[in-house]
Amino acid sequence: MRTVPFSRRHFLGGITALGAGLACPAWLLAAAQPLSQDPAEFQAITREAWIYAYPMLMHYQTMQKQALNPSASEYVGGFGRFRHYSDLFTPKNRDIVTPNNDTPYSWAWLDLRAEPWVLSVPAVDAQRYYVHQLVDMYTQNFAYVGVLSTGREAGDYLIAGPGWQGQAPAGIKQVLRSETEIAMILGRTGLNHADDLPAVRALQQQYRLRALHDYTGSAAPAPAAAVNWLPWEIQNGLGAGFITHLNQLLTLCPVVESERALRDRFSRIGIVPGQPFDVAALNPQQRQALIAGIQQAQAELKAASEKLPRPISMFGDRQALANDYLKRAMGAALGIYGNSIDEAVYTGSRLDQRGEPLVAGRQYRLHFRADQLPPASQFWSLTLYDLPDRQLVDNPINRYCLSSRDALKRDADGGLTLLLQREAPADQSNWLPTPAKGPFFLALRLYGPSEAAKTGQWQMPAVEAA
């Protein structure tokens, strides 16, 4: 369950509301080093730093709800434990956007400062898909454990922080290294059909997390120092308070060599790990430059997100993203915690073949030629969502997606035609009901995508209006 995936509506609306968050809060502490006196430089660095920080801030918002706030409905129980979600979503579930019923989620957060943790997974049969996506505080997917990456056998995997220098104990299949001291696990377990939920729940209960000392039966290390986590409020957190939040988060993110010059540049406006920051202590020119840089960054991200609805290259590890911070920010804005391209490809459409929006009251079809079927080694699914809310659509047969695991009927030539309309066709096998009113869009997910899908050589065909 993605608890903070900003939909475009939420993101773009939030940018508009952030003006109020640019006021200077009085509780911020004083910065302790001289800052740039050049307003142009101050604004340019602020713009660059805000785009860099945006995914980390959205990630922190998720962590606040899931790991730090026991009163939140999203709370998973703190660090070092799984919370499993295994109920199917319906249009009544509106706490997240673009939900799917293909892969029920399992969430966990790990504090790696004192010692590593061990993730244990069971063996699965050839029909079962599962994956555990490991995410660092930059929102980079630094490792995977699952059928496509590590196979279908049972195994124990050690997840270590950047400073760990120990030796992996016997029985560990692989050491997975996070660049940051806090890591998140987002597990997905493939649901083969609606009656498969008991098997999914049973498998989720076999995912196991143990601190390294529990795994080896040794004495526990000294606990890491408690963190006085800053409270989160989105307007301030994405506004003038973003530097204060970033400075705290960077204490858990040791600098990597490829970012050393960038971090040095950031220090010119007070971005230093653990450093307090006081907006009120800035001179008028610096304050104006700070606000202008934030607004410039927000506008840049908004414009880029409108041009690129959801490209397949926004998610991955540091090597895949190549320190492209705008790309990383777009991934966080349009669908935080998307899978890396080797695991899944996301595509879809909100337009028909003529470039007109998909709307209620019309009949559409999505036709795949026999040589154009979605190329996925595990499975594919097509889900319909309303706009602008990006939620599942109520319909008389409670069908919210079609997938390769359904009993779909092929065309005479081996192709596949999916029917998208409100009225029930004579044969409902390939029917995906559309809304009673308003616009909608389609999301096509390919799990285990082919090289053609990953490179863009294969593309979803246009939605045809009747």
UniProtKB/TrEMBL annotation:
SUPFAM superfamilies to which the protein is assigned, alphabetical: VPA0735-like
Pfam family, one: DUF1214
Name of the protein described by the UniProt record: DUF1254 domain-containing protein
Annotated ranges, domain DUF1214: 343-450
Signal sequence bounds: 1-30
InterPro entries tied to this protein: DUF1214 (IPR010621), DUF1214_C_sf (IPR037049), DUF1254 (IPR010679), DUF1254_sf (IPR037050), TAT_signal (IPR006311)
Residues annotated as domain DUF1254: 80-210
PROSITE patterns cross-referenced by the UniProt entry: PROKAR_LIPOPROTEIN, TAT
Keywords, in A-Z order: Signal
UniProt keyword Signal, yes or no: yes
